[in-house]
Structures are given as C-alpha cells and as structure tokens.
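Hi,

Apologies if this is the wrong queue. I'm a grad student, and the batch job for MutS homolog 3 from Ictidomys tridecemlineatus produced an output file that my downstream script rejects. I'm not sure whether the problem is my script or the file. Here is the sequence I used:
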Amino acid sequence: GIVDGIFTRMGAADNIYKGRSTFMEELTDTAEIIRKATSQSLVILDELGRGTSTHDGIAIAYATLEYFIRDVKSLTLFVTHYPPVCELEKSYAQQVGNYHMGFLVSEDESQQDPGKGSILQNYGRPIMQ
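Support response: The file is valid. Your script probably expects a header line. Output copied below for reference.
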C-alpha cells in the first residue's frame, strides 16, 4: 500500500471514566502516535497543545512537529493556530509547507479555498457573524 498506517489526533475531550483531563488525553494519544508512526505513515494532528496554556501548547506543538519532520519523516498534516509553529517552514523548507484555508462569505454563499502560506490574523469571529 501507499501508507502503512493512518494516525489521527482530533477533537478535545476529557475522559471522566479514566479520570483524565483533556490535556492528558491529548498527550496520551499523541504519545501512542509517536511510538507507532513510521516514515511510511500518514499522521494528522489537529490543534495539538490546545488542552493547556498557550505557552506550553506552543512548546508541545513545536517540539512534536519538529520530531515528526526530523526523526519520523512521515507525511504529516499538522493543523495549528500557533504562529511560532509555522516558523518551522523556515528551518525545514524542503520538508514543510504552510497552507491556510481562505473563506469568502457573502449573503448568498460561502466558499472555502486553500492557499499557500500561513495567516497571522484570526478570521473566526467575522465568519461566525
């Protein structure tokens, strides 16, 4: 096959049955992906680090993505709203590309278009209105 495994970490929820916070669930899932992913894997991580403080979240997201780039070398889709994580494109230009999702909203329709590069402005609030 093209890939030997698909690994995902999406969503944000605690696990009251196991006594685990959202942050603990996030780290446990991510640790399992780190252990199992290979250079032939597809890894999708959505907003890693959101279960903790912004400072710690940036550090976790940055270090995790850098590990996948440098050591695992898997095909990785890493969704983040942390601008410092996007800076990895400068250090790993051959392996990393930043993309954003653009939105066009009018009274009649909305349209989503992917674009090259990162965006420093958050459009979530205007889109919701």
